[in-house]
Design a protein that fits this description.
Blueprint (H helix, E strand, L loop, with lengths): L2 H12 L4 H11 L3 H6 L1 H5 L2 H5 L4 E10 L5 E12 L5 E7 L5 H17 L6 E6 L8 H15 L8 E4 L6 H15 L20 H19 L8 E5 L3 H12 L3 E7 L2 E4 L6 H10 L7 H4 L4 E3 L12 E4 L8 H9 L4 E3 L8 H9 L3 E3 L1 H4 L2 H15 L5 H25 L6 H20 L3
Parallel strand pairs: 3-4, 3-5, 6-7, 6-10, 10-11, 11-12
Antiparallel strand pairs: 1-2, 2-4, 7-8, 8-9
Helix pairs in contact: 1-2, 2-6, 6-18, 7-8, 9-10, 9-16, 9-17, 10-11, 13-14, 16-17, 17-18
The chain binds NADPH dihydro-nicotinamide-adenine-dinucleotide phosphate (NDP) and (2Z)-2-iminopentanedioic acid (2IT).
């Protein structure tokens, strides 16, 4: 058995009941055989055995009082995965499905994603099994404050810098930053990113993951001689990533036919009206079904997975992990999909990715295609350190440059290591090598 296979098997065996984590480890490590052959020093320094094990995982109790005066208890997590390239960095997810397996998969992916940005950031992830749905504004605030009472002792500008993810946006980061500031008695802006503009946040951070996804997609399509203008797109989700992916795709001339939430999807034959979607999701925090009240020509289907049965040129999964399995991938291929670019983390199962690659679907893997969010978080950290704020145009230009660079770095790494046309392998390799070299230089830790 090869060294790589041996590490994969041992990792799986030693972490039972962590299927999402196993999936991420398999996905990354299985691409690294040619790198290990070229650089035996990585094996000598046990880089793989060390990189699959988080530096530390912290689990804590989060008690909070609901509006009826009842005490509720949730579980909080922070997985500080790897700090070879910089302070731990990665989002916080609030969703009832959150567990250690999901946060380890996300933290593991984050190491390589952050490396691809070339900004100095290590990898981490955290969150809670708290369900924000149906909670009042005050309940959200009390939960965030209690969560921060523990998180505060784990984070800092040079230590660990959380941001948002599913269920955590500018509002939640605002409450966490407020509580953190109170505990620290200063203005420790650099310890969290995704802050509001009046709390030291960066322009473009809100739009960054979605815009970045489309900048990456546009570069990838151009490189294949394809113009995004006039193409039809389907975008799953209707949260932060999906909304700004839709906005930028439309600005570049694509037609977005459908978007979803966990309840179902909306199909708009004339294209989704993004201002209506923003009002429903960002202002009213309502279910996507409400869209029909404003656009009677739209249709609603109460099975969100069926969104992938819609014929489209571009499929952009922007909701959650494993939303595209083999069956959805086969349907997309049958309907002639040209390109899949992942806004969510690990939205395609291993078998789905295999089908896309075998059928020559242009495939933009998550850790490259959705790196614009954390890249702009990196730019927020820079601005906080310098105590100044760049203009929207300045940040947007840097984001665009980073996404274009990530595409070419992934493409070139794939070519160099015998995976021509496979950006998943290219992104994994390009991301991995920077981290492995830093780990080698820093000794056995
Ligand atoms: P949001 O909370 O803003 O939106 C999430 C969207 O996905 C909602 O429409 C939600 O529907 C849907 N969704 C969530 N869980 C499920 C599920 N189990 N089944 C079906 N639909 C689901 O999150 P984001 O937009 O920030 O995140 C979306 C994805 O992008 C995640 O995979 C995240 O990790 C990834 N990502 C986010 C970044 C960021 O900067 N925010 C950066 C890079 C990646 P509902 O409201 O009904 O639950
Ligand atoms: O998955 C991700 O890259 C994010 N949720 C963004 C993390 C960040 O630190 O901005």
């Amino acid at each position: 058995m090869s060294y790589v296979r041996d590490v994969i098997e041992k990792t799986i065996k030693s972490t039972p009941r962590e299927p999402e984590f196993h999936q991420a480890v398999e996905e990354v490590l299985s691409c690294l055989e040619p790198v290990m052959d070229e650089k035996p020093e990585y094996q000598e320094a046990a880089i793989l055995e060390r990189i699959v094990e988080p530096d530390r995982s912290i689990i804590f109790r989060v008690p909070w009082e609901d509006d009826h005066g009842n005490i509720q208890i949730n579980r909080g997590f922070r997985v500080q995965y790897n700090s070879a390239l910089g302070p731990y960095k990665g989002g916080l997810r609030f969703h009832p499905s959150v567990n250690l397996s999901i946060l380890k998969f996300l933290g593991f992916e984050q190491i390589f994603k952050n490396s691809l940005t070339t900004l100095p950031m290590g990898g981490a992830k955290g969150g809670s099994d708290f369900d924000p749905k149906g909670k009042s504004e005050k309940e959200i605030m009390r939960f965030c404050q209690s969560f921060t009472n523990e998180l505060a002792y784990l984070i800092g500008a040079d230590l660990d810098v959380p941001a948002g993810d599913i269920g955590v946006g500018t509002r939640e980061i605002g409450y966490m930053f407020g509580q953190y500031k109170k505990i620290k008695r200063g203005y420790p802006a650099g310890a969290l990113t995704g802050k509001g503009i009046t709390s030291g946040g960066s322009l473009v951070r809100t739009q960054a993951t979605g815009y970045g996804l489309i900048y990456f997609l546009d570069e990838m399509l151009k490189d294949h001689g394809i113009n995004i203008k006039g193409k039809t797109a389907v975008i799953s989700g209707s949260g932060n990533v999906a909304i700004y992916a839709c906005e930028k795709a439309q600005q570049l001339g694509a037609k977005v036919l459908a978007m979803s939430d966990s309840g179902g999807y909306v199909y708009a034959p004339d294209g989704i009206n993004i201002e209506i979607m923003k009002k429903i999701k960002e202002v009213d925090r309502e279910r996507i079904e409400e869209y029909l009240k404003y656009d009677p020509s739209a249709h609603y289907c109460d099975n969100c997975k069926d969104i992938w049965t819609i014929k489209c040129d571009l499929a952009l999964p922007c909701a959650t992990q494993n939303e595209i399995t083999e069956a959805e991938a086969a349907k997309l291929i049958e309907n002639g999909v040209l390109c899949v670019a992942e806004g969510a983390n690990m939205p395609s199962s291993g078998k789905a990715v295999k089908l896309f690659l075998e059928n020559r679907v242009i495939f933009g893997p998550a850790k490259a295609a959705n790196a614009g969010g954390v890249a702009t978080s990196g730019l927020e950290m820079s601005q906080n350190s310098m105590r100044l704020a760049w203009s929207f145009e300045e940040v947007d230009k840097r984001l665009n440059q980073i996404m274009v660079q990530i595409y070419h770095n992934a493409k070139n790494a794939a070519l160099k290591y015998g995976y021509e046309g496979n950006l998943l392998a290219g992104a994994n390799i390009a991301g991995f090598i920077r981290v492995a070299d830093a780990m080698l230089a820093q000794g056995v830790l």
